[in-house]
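stuck on whats below:

***
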Amino acid sequence: MAKVRVGSIVLRVDDLRRQTAFWAAALDYMPREDPSEGADFVLLRPRNGVGPNLSLDRVRSQLQVPPRIHLDLYTDDQAGEVTRLLALGATEVHWNKRPPDADYVILADGSRLAPGAQPSKRRAAGGRAEQRMHHREHGVHRGQKG
C-alpha cells in the first residue's frame, strides 16, 4: 500500500501575482500565507481543506507544445464555469485536432497558450459523458471524475 499522496501540484508561471489571483478565484483556494511583493513562490490551499495544494512558481520557461502537464477540472455546470473562468482572465484555445464531439473545452490560464491533448472517452457517474475544460491546458469536466 502506498504511503505517499499528492501534496501539491506545482505550476510554473510568468506573472505570479496575476496567476495567484486567478487560481485562488478559479478553485476557491487561498494562499497559505500572504504573498510578499517580489515573491517567487506561492502555495495555494483549498479553502475547505479538501484536495491537493496548488503551488505557483515564478519561473520563465520555454513554452512546451503540448504542455507536459495540465489540470482537468470537473463541474456539473460546464458552460457556467467556462464563462466564470473566462471572466477571471482565461482564454479559450481553439485546437484544429479537437474532435467535433469533444466532451471538453480548452482554456489557457493566461500565463501560456498551448493546444490540448485528445481526451479519453471516460464516463461519469450516471452514464453521462464527462465534459472537461482544459485550462493551460486545463479541463473542466461536467460531473464527477471517473
The chain has a mean pLDDT of 76.
